[in-house]
């Protein structure tokens, strides 16, 4: 098929502008409907205001995706953004942030992945890709420095994400960091509501059906050859110094050191001890097996493995593994993150690490969110056990811990065959379709999202965060050095008011991190260090206060987008099972719903949003430097 | 007047000379006025790495979760709550992954 060559050569010359360091200075715009590809400069003032990543994406979503534009509308934007640290020698700075109006909630999404995408894009001369329109036929986007083309993807359709990368690598004779490929699998092609975008063998932007958005646009993949454009830091010596400081901190800090050595492998044992490991779809919190083999060093020793680091990263985090035993012996897989062990394992009752690791990569390959699959499969297993879903509906048996059955279920979902078409709509819609009593067993939020792979009934701050977030997933996240921003390090986890104050008090940090083009795991250092890195990269003087304010402003913009999408405060509730009281384990008897309204009241008061309408209050917008948002939301009289 | 069991779990064993796996249980002696704080001070005084990871300016720092009788600190016990023979204290690493 004809390809659309870059139109940059035809545009009038733009007067050179002194760019802050760390920026390529251009956004790459793609209109799939017309086949037009063009570059758009953005100003240093906009860079300071939006930084990149979710900060940039949120503003594009706010300005360019009005209420009438649903997730599947041609005018929906798919923003693939990096940030000013991407491509610079700070650990884990190959980052990609995907921002769009997602298929899960039909509201805003911000979801991150790593690998080499961010670095390769920056070296090609772009800070972000903004996709709109719908292609007439399947295409993929090919970027090789000044060559930017939409190429025929017919030969890639039907392939999973790893096969897609394999094929493009063979075709271009490039592998590893020389070619970053992010693609959708069959799940995205068939518009599964929790389809993800996967890249570089194991990195997944997974939330809110961003893969379905890409599928709707008939964009199979984005392939970026490592570019040759220069990238400058404003203060190279300062940047190297702070990069070393961050590396030292990650290696020596008592908490971060665990991530440095083992990534997120320690999650299963840790979270089980405090009742946060979700087992069998929230039916228990007590593991029925000895967890010795689930300790981080044992998990790693249990496989033949090798490092699979992201751009410029010195962490011993990402690894590839070889399955040692069982029906898939010899398969090469990506070492699961904690959420993989949880979603492909404990949530569905599977406890053999070899099988769980294999299933986790299968989920990546077909391109679905491992968390939502876990909640869906666990729910289906419970429903089969209770007779709410029958063998005839599925066509096979599906019992707790049955990994091969889970794989069959995945096939059913991805192909949308039979009952799979119901399940492909995600947990909330499938549960509503079946109604009670099956619906009462399903874990979801009334917004249409599902939680991360934790049991939030023992982790109320994440439940509140998930449900109040403008992106329907974590917006505050784990407390990282909370005292640095004046938030207490520990509260009674079942004191709803105290929990709500912590969630509100920590807002801002995560959105700032997700705007830098860096990995969430390499930013587990003091915020001051990340501000130093941003300052050295750009030449700005960026403070911790400014970082928090920026992050909260981004949160307010996403909240405004969310309200515009019809996601209002009446939807800020967990489903019956998500809100249930644990029957065993360390959180036994603790009822979050007894305190839910009080938690919401506290959170709204603390963040400065209107409790009734959900809107950021005018004075909140002004304090965040977004007077324009106050006017948009409340009119000029306020 | 008896002892209280302090269980050092998994990653935290790194700070007492272990390899970050398994568990080690210390039977710490109790006095009539023993509190969670005094028990932890007694144990951490013998292990400098644990001392550094556990405390920050005389209060518990950010790195280690403290559980008393399987409940996180703040639920049934505070740092200055009395502990009694048979109580169980556990030290668990903070998890900041996803």
Total of DSSP H or I helical runs spanning 4+ residues of chain B: 2
The gyration radius over C-alpha positions of chain A equals 23 Å
Tell me the radius of gyration of chain B: 13 Å
Gap between N and C termini of chain A, in Å? Answer: 54 Å
Largest interface: A-B, 46 and 33 residues
Given helix and strand content, the structural type of chain A is alpha+beta
Shape of chain B: globular
Low-confidence stretches of chain A: 1-9
Structural class of chain B: alpha+beta
In what order do the strands lie side by side in the largest sheet of chain B? Answer: 2-1-7-5-6
CATH architecture grouping of the largest domain in chain A:
4-Layer Sandwich
Q: What is the name of the CATH class of chain B?
A: Alpha Beta
What's the topology here?
The complex is a heterodimer of chains A (638) and B (98).
Chain A: E1 26-31, E2 36-41, H1 44-50, H2 53-64, E3 78-81, E4 96-101, E5 108-113, H3 117-123, E6 128-132, E7 139-144, E8 147-152, H4 161-172, E9 179-183, H5 186-189, E10 197-199, E11 203-205, H6 210-216, E12 219-225, H7 236-252, H8 256-262, H9 267-273, H10 296-301, E13 304-307, E14 319-322, E15 332-334, H11 338-343, H12 353-366, H13 370-386, H14 391-394, H15 403-415, H16 420-423, H17 427-434, H18 460-468, H19 496-505, H20 509-513, H21 527-538, H22 544-564, H23 596-607, H24 618-623, H25 627-634
Parallel strand pairs in A: 1-6, 7-12
Antiparallel strand pairs in A: 1-2, 3-4, 3-6, 4-5, 7-8, 9-10, 9-12, 10-11, 13-14, 14-15
Chain B: E1 3-9, E2 23-29, H1 36-44, H2 48-54, E3 55-56, E4 59-60, E5 64-68, E6 71-72, E7 88-93
């Amino acid at each position: 098929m004809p390809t659309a060559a870059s139109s940059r050569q035809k545009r009038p010359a733009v007067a050179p502008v002194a760019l802050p360091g760390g920026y390529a200075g251009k956004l790459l715009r793609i209109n799939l409907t017309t086949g037009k590809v063009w570059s758009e400069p953005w100003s240093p003032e906009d860079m300071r205001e939006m930084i990149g990543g979710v900060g940039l994406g949120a503003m594009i979503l706010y300005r360019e995706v009005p209420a009438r534009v649903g997730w599947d509308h041609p005018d929906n934007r798919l923003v693939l953004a990096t940030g000013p640290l991407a491509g610079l020698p700070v650990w884990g700075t190959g980052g990609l942030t995907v921002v769009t109006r997602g298929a899960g909630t039909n509201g805003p999404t911000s979801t991150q992945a790593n690998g080499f995408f961010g670095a390769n894009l920056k070296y090609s001369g772009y800070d972000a890709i903004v996709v709109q329109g719908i292609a007439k036929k399947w295409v993929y986007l090919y970027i090789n420095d000044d060559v930017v083309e939409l190429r025929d993807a017919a030969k890639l359709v039907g392939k999973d994400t790893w096969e897609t990368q394999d094929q493009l690598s063979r075709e271009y004779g490039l592998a590893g960091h020389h070619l970053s490929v992010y693609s959708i699998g069959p799940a995205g092609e068939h518009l599964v509501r929790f389809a993800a975008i996967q890249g570089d063998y194991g990195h997944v932007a997974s939330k809110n059906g961003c893969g379905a958005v890409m599928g709707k646009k008939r964009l199979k993949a984005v392939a970026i050859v490592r570019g040759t454009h220069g990238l400058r830091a404003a203060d190279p010596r300062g940047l190297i110094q702070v990069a070393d400081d961050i590396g030292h901190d990650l290696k020596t800090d008592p908490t971060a050191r665990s991530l440095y050595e083992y990534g997120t492998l320690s999650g299963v044992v840790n979270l089980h001890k405090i009742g946060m490991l979700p087992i069998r779809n929230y039916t228990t919190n007590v593991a029925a097996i000895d967890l010795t083999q689930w300790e981080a060093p044992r998990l790693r020793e249990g496989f033949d493995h090798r490092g699979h680091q992201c751009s410029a990263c010195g962490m011993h985090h990402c690894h590839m593994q070889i399955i040692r035993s069982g029906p898939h012996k010899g398969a090469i897989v990506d070492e699961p993150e904690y959420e993989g062990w949880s979603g492909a394992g404990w949530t569905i009752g599977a406890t053999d690490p070899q099988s769980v690791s294999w299933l986790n990569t299968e989920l990546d390959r077909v391109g679905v969110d491992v968390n939502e699959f876990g909640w869906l499969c666990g729910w289906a297993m419970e429903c089969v056990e209770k007779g709410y879903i029958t063998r005839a509906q599925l066509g096979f048996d599906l019992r707790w811990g049955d990994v091969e059955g889970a794989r069959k279920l995945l096939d059913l979902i991805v192909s949308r065959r039979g009952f799979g078409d119901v399940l492909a709509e995600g947990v909330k819609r499938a549960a509503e379709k079946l109604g009670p009593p099956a619906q009462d067993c399903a874990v979801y939020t009334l917004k249409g999202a599902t939680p991360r792979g934790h049991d939030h009934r023992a982790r109320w701050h994440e439940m509140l965060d998930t449900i109040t977030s403008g992106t329907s997933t974590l917006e505050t996240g784990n407390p990282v050095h909370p005292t640095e921003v004046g938030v207490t390090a520990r509260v009674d986890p079942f004191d709803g008011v105290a929990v709500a104050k912590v969630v509100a008090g920590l807002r801002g940090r995560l959105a700032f991190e997700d705007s830098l083009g860096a990995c969430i795991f390499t930013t587990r250092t003091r915020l001051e260090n990340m501000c130093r890195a941003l300052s050295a990269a750009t030449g700005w003087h960026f403070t911790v206060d400014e970082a928090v304010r920026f992050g909260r402003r981004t949160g307010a913009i996403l909240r405004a987008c969310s309200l515009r999408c019809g996601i209002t405060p009446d939807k800020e509730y967990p489903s019956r099972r998500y809100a249930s009281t644990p029957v065993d384990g360390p959180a036994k008897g603790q009822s979050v719903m007894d305190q839910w309204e009080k938690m919401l009241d506290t959170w709204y008061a603390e963040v400065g949003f209107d409790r009734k309408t959900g809107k950021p209050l005018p004075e909140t917008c002004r304090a965040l430097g977004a007077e324009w948002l106050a006017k948009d939301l409340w009119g000029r009289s306020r | 007047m008896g002892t209280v069991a302090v269980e050092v779990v998994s990653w935290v064993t790194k700070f007492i000379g272990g390899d970050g796996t398994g568990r080690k249980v210390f039977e710490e002696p109790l006095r009539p006025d023993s509190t969670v704080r005094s028990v932890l001070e007694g144990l951490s005084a013998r292990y400098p790495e644990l001392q550094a990871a556990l405390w920050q300016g005389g209060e518990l720092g950010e790195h280690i979760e403290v559980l008393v009788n399987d409940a996180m600190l703040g639920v049934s016990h505070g740092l200055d709550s009395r502990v009694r023979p048979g109580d169980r204290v556990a030290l668990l690493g903070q998890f900041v992954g996803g």
